[in-house]
């Protein structure tokens, strides 16, 4: 049986075949007389749902709540974003771009989102190189002032001098290219109502006369920022599209199952200090019947407003869970229709209400992530839910001396679940040799359930399976058995029931084998 078998087929096969005695025990009997019959206990054990799942390793995708109800969980990522993307825009506009000093006051080409206003910007690394040429015959001193760029609480000022020009060859230069100014620890505080950074220069000739630079420029490189504060503008942050595969119905054939309380949860982990809202472009469920069903609800229509830290909470991370349930969406309808996959595409919008009075922040470690969690609790109903799987057999181990068999199975079922089984013996080429029963057989009768959906008794069922000589000869070459299991919850699916992890089935199987002497 594969690890991806559906839950119900797993139970049926596990309960039916758990504890089978090795057939080699029968073939090793010595001194058998002609037409002797031997009675063998094959199964005498109790298996809970928890035991069945642990035996196959399928608990990895499950959790069991305090009441004992089993939940199937499926997860996927929607949005993952950090501050690098938003800082990168400023880097691109400043980093490595030569900025000519063509006037005594100019604004640096700071590129931001449309309508953004920055109040503060902290630089954690970067270098500033500047240079000019002197066309005057006397020496000059140039002072470069950045009124919006602060170092140790004061606007940054840089001073450089150049010798006088004698009128021949190139103009007298000044540059700090071999000793660039380290911008680490500086802070940009922009003037109110502007998102520009200005630079001013003053050239003083040796005699005290002010003048202009003949040629000059600035270059900023290796920039990186640690903090940004202000209004960041209304902008869409693309989250991307993803798919969650739900393997619960992998072996589904027909029938219905209804989950009474499924949920889809958006888990938002956010350290961005910016108002942000989700925008769901699509959220569709693909079903076993080929349908495409959209998730509907107020949180889809209006979006989810992320909880975020304030200006006095820099470094804090907020985690919130936004749950789609049957009370605020159609989640029970679309997840009750046999979901195979969930296809979703979700973006995020910063400053969605365009309120400039709300100032936010980013740090170099700010990020947000939205995970989607699908929870399918085993609380609900099923009507003729049919699934299937194939197991390996090796009846040839019994030897040619064994020519007939009769099985008796007694089940004591704590689950509010009727289980019917049919099996088909297959040879190595997959050809059907015979069936397990003459028709589909109810092998486990469901226990009665109370108003809370929890079973209140133990239901007992006795089943006989006879293999006279002609039938036994047909199945002897069987290499596998194809199991088809049908499930209906107690009350013919008319009420919701709960399957608890420690509920189970006690199975007793005995066999009488006919064996001829050699």
Describe this structure in words.
Strand 7 (140-151) and strand 8 form a beta hairpin. By secondary structure, the protein is mainly beta. The chain is elongated. The longest helix has 11 residues, at 7-17. The protein has helices spanning 7-17, 24-27, 49-56, 84-94, 298-302, 331-335, 469-475; strands spanning 36-48, 62-64, 70-82, 99-100, 105-108, 117-134, 140-151, 154-162, 172-175, 181-182, 187-189, 197-205, 210-211, 215-231, 235-237, 241-245, 252-259, 263-270, 276-287, 292-294, 318-324, 339-350, 360-363, 367-377, 379-392, 402-413, 417-426, 432-435, 441-444, 459-467, 480-489, 497-498, 504-515. Strands 4, 5, 6, 7, 8, 9, 10, 11, 12, 13, 14 and 23 form a twelve-stranded antiparallel beta sheet that branches. Strands 17, 25, 27, 28, 29, 31 and 32 form a seven-stranded antiparallel beta sheet that branches. It has a five-stranded antiparallel beta sheet with strand order 2-3-24-18-21. The protein folds into three domains: 7-69 and 381-515, no CATH class; 117-231, Hemocyanin, Chain: A, domain 2; 234-376, no CATH class. It has seven helices and 33 strands.
CA radius of gyration? 38 Å
Q: Fraction of residues in helices?
A: under 10%
User: What fraction of the residues are assigned to beta strands by DSSP?
Assistant: over 45%
What is the overall number of helices?
7
Query: How far apart lie the N and C ends?
Result: 36 Å
Q: What structural category characterises the helix and strand content?
A: mainly beta
Largest sheet: 12 strands, antiparallel
Low-pLDDT parts are 1-6, 18-34
Mean pLDDT: 81
**Molecular shape:** elongated
Structure summary, number of beta strands = 33
Whole-number total of structural domains: 3
